[in-house]
Amino acid sequence: MEYQERRKPSFFEKFALGIVDFFKAFGMFFVKLYKAIVDGFIRFGKRFLDGSIGTKLSYFIMGAGNFFHKRILKGIIYLSIQIGFFAIMILSPEVNHTPIGLKAIRNFATLGTIEGDLFTRTDNSMLMLLFGVVTFGLIFMYLFAYVSNTKSSYLADTLVREGKVPQTFKQDLHSLIDERFHITMITPSILGIVAFTALPTIFMIFIAFTDYDQTIIAGQHLFNWVGLANFRAIFDGKSEIAVRFIPVVTWTLTWAVFATFTCYIGGILVALLINGKTIKLKKLWRTVFMLTIAIPQFISLLAVRQLLSLSGPINTLLVNMHIISQPIEFLGNATNGILPKVMVILINIWIGIPFTMLMTSGILMNIPADLYEAAQIDGANKVQIFFKITLPYVVFVTTPYLISSFVGNISAFNVIFLLTGGGPTVTGFQAGHTDLLVTWLYKLTIDLGDYNQGAVVSILTFLLTATGTLLTYRRSKAFKEEDTFQ
Fold it and tell me: Do 168 and 233 form a contact (C-beta atoms < 8 A)?
């Protein structure tokens, strides 16, 4: 029976398979997470059963295991953490004897109960939500320290059973600047991420489940939990978020695709042109593109906006040359949404190509010359060499950059805001023809004060970018063959 080559799947079939693989991986993540949690509880119980009397006591009094093994200073640190945590959670300096931590959790659940007036202070729902998030963060960190306390004691038990002496606190500190130096270096970054990224993000997510909008002033009015009402509003067909969500998402994805691939392909072509053997003054051309990068982007965008304005030099030139009879609104005040969309994509090409060109130039100079020589000996022409050697090599190396560019373009606030401001306007709605999700989010929060709807849009933007990034990256050769190039 003759061998028949299997038909290669089409782009849409590959895309569908990619979505299936993504959700499989997404499901496996939760399966692995569940197994990790179960295994963690099993190990937690095993340490209690197999541990010494000091380890067993450490499950009730933090640091007891370290005191048992005569590591006094480490034991004092763990005990101080426990005392400090319970002091926050159950003790209170206030007259009404309400514990600080428990009060924060109670206020988080209610978001305030006193709606004041001229003589009575209103509960600040914003602060209550914030303190609640911080309190839950403290609980999480305490649990981490609590588990670390049992692990530390059980590790000392293991060393004693093996006839070894447990490390002293001084030796632990020395290891943090020696074999465990990576922990010392990464800890400040983790703390910074938790304090300035994780907690604000969690706070924003909770805002999406409240009715905190422009009618409410924090500290003067209460806001309440509303569950999934803000998310259901996307599908009710009445509110602005329902009517404008799909058009804005569609334009956001269209913009991200065109802005990413036009700059990417254009940068590769310019790099190939400059690196051609027949091109002279290569350093000069690269310097020219470097100068365009050196100018701050917002200055370039504002300059282009003035060039394209009604009384700008481009309109003046076109009128004087009798190409047009009246000046044209190219950007935010155009009569339709098509022209400004095309213009912002073209302007972005001018801004974005130099970055890709410089990066690709470095990659092209590092492609082994042997590959080109072998291809020429085999009779390959320039087009074949480009598609079989140059382009695969560049794409393989730059796939992470390509994906990050796509995600960055989804959140490209500067280009849209400074050129069109989201306009032209759509009658009756805040989101204009060229508004991206991120510029719409800015208008919802800063201009309108609808923080709950803004939080919903930001969550959906995150889900969109995260899904697209993971889906694309997992299907790329840079992920599957990160240690090789074929």
Answer: no
Per-residue pLDDT tens listing for the chain (486 residues): 444 445 555 555 655 666 666 677 667 878 888 898 999 899 999 999 999 999 999 999 999 999 998 889 999 999 999 999 998 888 766 545 667 888 889 889 998 888 766 667 788 899 999 999 999 999 999 999 999 999 999 999 998 988 888 888 788 888 888 888 888 888 888 888 888 888 888 999 999 999 998 888 877 888 899 998 888 888 777 777 888 888 898 999 899 889 988 988 888 888 888 877 777 777 787 777 777 777 888 888 888 889 888 888 888 898 888 888 888 888 888 888 889 999 999 998 888 888 888 888 778 777 777 887 788 887 888 788 888 888 888 877 877 788 788 888 888 888 899 888 888 888 778 888 899 998 998 988 888 888 998 898 888 888 877 776 766 666 655 555 555 544
Structural domains of the chain, ranges and CATH numbers in brackets: 51-227 (no CATH), 235-480 (1.10.3720.10)
Q: Exposure of 247 by Cβ count < 10 A (0-12 exposed, 13-18 middle, 19+ buried)? A: middle
Q: What are the tokens at 298?
A: 């917002």
The pTM assigned to this predicted structure is 0.79
Question: The tokens of 393 are what?
Answer: 């090599």
